[in-house]
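Person: Please work through this fold.
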Amino acid sequence: MRALVYHSAHEVKVDTVPDPILQHADDIILRVSATAICGSDLHLYRGKVPGLMSGDILGHEFMGEVVETGPTVSKLQRGDRVVVPFVIACGRCHFCERQLYAACETTNPDRGTILNKKTLRSGAAMFGYTHHYGGVPGGQAEYVRVLRRRPGRPDGGGVRAHAGGRDAVHGRPCRLPAGVRA
């Protein structure tokens, strides 16, 4: 597949990279239909965020269509259109229970970019950011592996299926920006 790959500061290229594969029974593979460039991507492009390595796939704002699901995925199926939040949250920790998903204490195995010596946990893992935030390949690609279920969260933890105008994970009405069709 083709993906936007970081090589060094001020050097990103669309390269051919291996297609993502299911790694866990609750993963999904998504064909990306739309992606965006965020101001955070500019910091990465300029080499200003530590932990980005040559070969990393960028992109943490994306949506698309489910093309493959792991055997334990039950709320999404091939053909569903989903919007994926950039953070990967567990849904069960102190912060997730307060709907502060970007501060999830469990999904990021790395230190983050905390510069002090306190024993603070870093923020949640993120798609397409740096290895300080999990090193998870991003969505500026033709396909992306989405961690379907977050650790300890039986409902899927954030992947939104916009089928029939409802969030397939929680059953709530979807609120997409004007002009955006799911």
